[in-house]
Design a protein that fits this description.
mainly alpha, single chain, globular, 19 helices, ARM-like
Length: about 375
């Protein structure tokens, strides 16, 4: 975390992307630094949103000395109070709170309830290990596509948080579920377990599994598990994958792993064609070469292409901003309307596609 904060302070950009920053553990010193950065005028609202998100996920006891600052932000105050309440519950009260949460969210859309509160309950349950692993496995095995509750999704998350290797086959099976949220939760759980068994099970099922979207989600797991088995699986699967979208994900996984063996395969796709609507493999291979200090004759060309695309997207974003006018000025197109909740170009697209905003609605 100190290294992340140091890099942030060295950045000269107002917008810095810190999607996974909340996963880093905090200390009293890093919390103090985060508070100072939140009050700084050097960063835009998107960056401050991610900074506050890191604070939301901190240990409530570490936040106690800063309660005056916390109380100024209603959302932050609510989050911290929720964490405090969960931490002082006994095991039975915590399990009851989990059951009540599941009941209250049944038949609702994801944006109609507090998913973060559900995450906090799961984290506390896994930390205490007060739910029998066999009970988790039974819930996963009893999955019913007609069930309108989020019980299975949160038990999937619990299986990942508890690192239940016995749940791997069941989690792999859920990757093909016809559900907007469940396969994503299964991906996160499998990555969290992160063992060779996850990789081999997925690789064995990759072409044989049922479910239209199984390979779409399965292909997203390999690159996130940093094992030699992941690289071997990707090197085997990519040449056999005929679907351009799935192949693009597999190629990106090789870049995520920093696979020197996979570099020729990725380059062949960059030159021969891939699913540009899904992601930029040019950006992936360029980032891999720069980070790993791998010399490549195409680096200048890739850099030029990325700069041109960035400039095009910046122009397009400016054009879109000019299209929105203040709703208070009826019939007037002279004053642009600025959205206070503006989405950054590298943020997840609010349409829910899973793509970056600049590659989706912001393109």
């Amino acid at each position: 975390m100190p290294l992340l904060l140091e890099k942030l302070k060295q950045s000269k950009q107002a917008q810095v992307h810190l999607f996974r920053g909340y996963k880093f553990p905090q200390t009293e010193e890093t919390i103090r630094e985060l508070l100072a950065l939140c009050q700084s005028t050097a960063y835009d609202d998107n960056t401050k949103f991610h900074l506050k998100n890191m604070l939301y996920h901190s240990d409530p006891q570490l936040l106690e000395p800063f309660v005056e600052f916390i109380d100024k932000d209603p959302l932050w105050k609510k989050r911290v109070q929720q964490k405090r309440n969960l931490s002082i519950m006994d095991d039975q009260e915590l399990v009851s709170a989990f059951q009540l949460f599941i009941e209250q969210t049944t038949d609702k859309f994801v944006n109609e309830f507090d998913t973060t509160y559900g995450d906090e309950i799961v984290n506390e349950l896994s930390r205490r290990t007060c739910i029998d692993p066999d009970a988790v496995l039974q819930k996963l095995d009893a999955y019913n596509p007609e069930d309108l509750s989020y019980e299975t999704a949160y038990f999937v998350q619990l299986a990942g948080a508890m690192k239940l290797e016995a749940a791997i086959p069941l989690l792999c099976g859920l990757l093909g579920a016809e559900d907007d949220w469940l396969p994503e939760k299964a991906v996160e759980a499998l990555v969290h377990i992160g063992t060779t068994s996850v990789v081999t099970t997925l690789a064995d099922r990759y072409f044989a599994a049922n479910g239209e979207y199984f390979r779409l989600y399965a292909s997203d797991v390999f690159g996130k598990i940093k094992l030699s088995a992941s690289e071997e699986a990707l090197l085997t699967l990519l040449p056999e994958e005929q679907n351009l979208t799935y192949a693009t994900r597999l190629a990106d996984g090789l870049c995520e792993l920093g696979s020197s063996k996979g570099l020729p395969l990725v380059q062949a796709m960059v030159e021969g064609g891939y699913d540009r609507g899904l992601m930029s493999l040019t950006e992936s291979i360029y980032a891999y070469c720069v980070i790993s200090n791998t010399p490549h004759p195409s680096l200048p060309q890739w850099k030029k292409e990325l700069d041109m695309e960035e400039a095009r997207l910046a122009r397009r974003e400016k054009e879109l901003e000019q299209m929105f006018v203040s709703p208070k000025l009826q019939g007037s197109l002279s004053i642009p309307y600025t959205n206070p909740n503006k989405v950054g170009r590298n943020d997840p697209c609010p349409c829910g596609s899973g793509k970056k905003y600049k590659k989706c609605c912001g393109a």
